[in-house]
Design a protein that fits this description.
This protein has helices spanning 5-14, 36-55, 71-76, 79-82, 99-105, 115-125, 166-171, 173-180, 225-243, 291-300, 326-337, 379-393, 406-416, 426-431, 452-460, and strands spanning 18-20, 32-34, 60-62, 68-69, 84-89, 96-98, 139-142, 146-149, 157-161, 186-195, 210-220, 251-255, 267-275, 278-289, 306-307, 314-315, 318-325, 338-343, 354-359, 370-374, 398-400, 420-424, 433-438, 444-448. It is α+β, with helices and mostly antiparallel strands. Strands 3-10-11-17-14-13-12 form a 7-stranded mixed beta sheet, with helices on both faces. Helix 2 (36-55) crosses helix 11. Bound molecules: glycyl-adenosine-5'-phosphate. Residues 164, 166, 196, 198, 207-208, 211, 213, 215, 281-284, 321, 323, 325, 327-328 line the site of glycyl-adenosine-5'-phosphate.
Length: 463
């Protein structure tokens, strides 16, 4: 099928996955709220990641740090000086753009260029804004969001909302070592919200000003970093294909050029996904060397080294960092799972010649694993259906829906990716059975009411 971003935006809004933030006040540019289904899907993705990379491993611990940190952290990490984009403004509309992106759209190669070099290229091309107007001179625009602490105007201190999770893993390194005594190689993981004052957010939730991130810093001996890098690249690919279910042929690995590397990295690769708007970064993997620990040790005066067991020598561990954008992943999951198919028969109670939209999500990741649908609102049916929904809710996220025709209800469950619908009908009163309809095949099976839980356990046990 032709999956467009527009279709995903519509589905997400219509079915309550994601909608514009502050909508009743006209919204706030590029802010998005996760609705009742979006939050379930997001939590499921996060839980899957957490289980796979944190709790099921013996070499991983986790933290949950403050979003506001001492501003020294961001000075020492290099973000205050280096975490910026080249900003230009349309002199008429005052719309802001990233000059590197405008030049790239003209086919120019711009990675790693200084501001003056970008300006030269723009001058040589006679570059105008997309609206055809003059542009201002480029200036460096820092992506860290600033805010102020303190009650009164005159003693307010400038602080930053965290721009990445990683810094807390370095700043808390000493405490984690003291309390958990892990031996290298080991990782410190975190999942949470980060903030970046992006100049050109867009493509729905692909690039936003605040987003959820899941990442870990994996501490290794310097000699081990390449091996660790290869291992984590394999693990990231394995997780996103086998556990999340993204199509392998829509994923590729792209190596960063030396000019493109972040200020802290010696090697970075992106795992990219083929979106309707081109190949785009999904996850990143970076070798951060001992850059962060060393800088924080020097600036704080704290010893952040480990001691070699045999020789007793002190050393800085090196860091390999797999990073997973959660909200970006959720968008890719919706794009990847979206399908439309013609429905020939009335199987599944779609009309003949109709097309159904179905989200082919991994069952355990879907907002609901099951939905209970009484065929009518007759009290006797509702009683059985609600009892069944209560039973299922103890095991899975279960939807209960008694509104509209059964055809429309199936259509909704297909669109939100619910793998199993259990319909209670008038025969159920006699035979104590329900009809189970499977999302992808639309096949229907009649099972005993009291077998519903073991039946779904068996069906949902596979990832
Ligand atoms: N600690 C390393 C780090 O933060 P990054 O490449 O700057 O690395 C990590 O960001 C991930 O966060 C990306 O791979 C992407 O999935 C996601 N991401 C980055 N900027 C984003 C934005 N503006 N909106 C949504 N997700 C974003």
């Amino acid at each position: 099928v032709d999956v467009t971003l527009e279709k995903i935006v519509n589905l997400a809004k219509r079915r309550g996955f994601i909608f514009p933030g502050s909508e009743i006040y006209g919204g706030l540019a590029n802010s998005w709220d996760y609705g009742p289904l979006g939050v379930l899907l997001k939590n499921n993705l996060r839980d899957a990641w957490w289980k796979h990379f944190v709790t099921s491993r013996r070499d991983m611990v986790a933290i949950d740090a403050s979003i506001l940190m001492n501003p020294k952290v961001w000075e020492v990490s290099g973000h205050v000086a280096n975490f910026n984009d080249p900003l230009v403004e349309d002199k008429v509309t005052h719309q802001r753009y990233r000059l590197d992106q405008l030049l790239e759209e003209q086919g120019e190669t711009v990675t790693g260029l200084e501001l003056s070099e970008l300006q030269q290229k723009a001058d040589a091309l006679g570059l105008k804004s997309p609206a055809g107007n003059e542009l201002t001179e480029p200036k460096r625009f820092n992506l860290l969001f600033e805010t102020f602490l303190g009650a009164t105007e005159d003693n307010r201190a400038r602080v930053y909302l965290r721009g990445e999770l990683a810094q807390a893993m370095f700043v808390d390194f000493k405490r984690v070592m003291e309390t958990m005594r892990p031996a290298i190689p080991f990782g410190i993981a975190q999942a949470g919200r980060v903030f970046r004052n992006e100049i050109t957010p867009g493509n729905f939730t692909f690039r936003t000003l605040e987003f959820d991130l899941m990442e870990f810093e994996y501490f290794v001996a310097q000699t081990e970093w390449e091996q660790s890098f290869d291992y984590w690249l394999g693990e990231m690919q394995r997780w996103v294909t086998t556990e999340v279910g993204l199509a392998a042929d829509k994923l590729r690995v792209r190596e960063h050029t030396p000019e493109e590397l972040s200020h802290y990295s010696k090697r970075t690769v992106d795992i990219e996904y083929q979106t309707p708007f081109g190949w785009r970064e999904l996850f990143g993997l970076a070798y951060r060397t001992d850059f962060d620990l060393k800088n924080h040790a020097e600036a704080s005066g704290q010893d952040l080294r480990l001691t070699e067991a045999k020789s007793g020598e002190k050393f800085y561990p090196h860091v390999v960092e797999p990073t997973f954008g959660l909200t970006r992943l959720l968008l890719m999951v919706l794009l990847d799972a979206y399908d439309e198919e013609p429905v020939k028969s009335s199987g599944g109670n779609h009309g003949p010649g109709e097309t159904r939209t179905v989200l082919r999500l991994k069952p355990y990741l879907a907002p609901f694993q099951a939905a209970v649908l009484p065929l009518s609102r007759k009290e006797k049916l509702i009683k059985i259906a609600q009892g069944l929904a209560d039973d299922l809710s103890r095991h899975w996220q279960t939807d209960y829906d008694e509104t509209q025709s059964i055809g429309k209800r199936y259509r909704r469950q297909d669109e939100i990716g619910t793998p199993y619908c259990l319909t209670v009908d008038f025969d159920s009163l006699e035979d104590q059975c329900v009809t189970v309809r499977e999302r992808d095949s639309m096949t229907q099976e009649r099972i005993a009411l009291d077998r519903a839980v073991p039946y779904l356990h068996e069906k949902l046990s596979d990832r």
